[in-house]
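Incident review: delayed structure delivery

Summary: a single-chain prediction request sat in the queue longer than the usual turnaround. Root cause was a stuck worker, restarted by the on-call engineer. No data loss occurred. The affected request and its eventual output are reproduced below so the record is complete for anyone auditing the incident later.

Affected input:
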Amino acid sequence: MDFATAFPLIVYGLIALSCLICGVVGGTLLEPSGRGVAGFLYGFFFGPFGILIAAILRGQPTTDEIERATRRASRPMRTCSDCAESIYADARICRYCGNPALAARR
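Output delivered after worker restart:
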C-alpha cells in the first residue's frame, strides 16, 4: 500500500477517532444529570461544539427537577407557632424546632 492510498484511510480514521473522543467527553459531561446519551450524540456529531453545548447544558436543570420544584413550591405553607419558620401545612411536627403541637391543630 503506497502513501496515496493510505492517506485517506488515515484521515478518515483520525476523524472517526476524534468523533468518538468528543462523544465520550460530551456524554461524560451530561451523565450526572441523566442525559449521557444526548451528550454523546452532541459530541459525536458536532465535535468540539458539541462538547461546548454539553458543558452549557450541564448546569441546566432537567425536566424532572423542574417538575419536583414546582410541586414542592405549590404545596400550602403555614407558620410554626414556636420558631416562626414556614413549614408545610400538612406537617405533623416542625422540621426546624421539632414542635409536635402542630398536630393538635388539625
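Verification: Residues 1-74 form one domain.
Action items: add queue-age alerting; document worker restart procedure.
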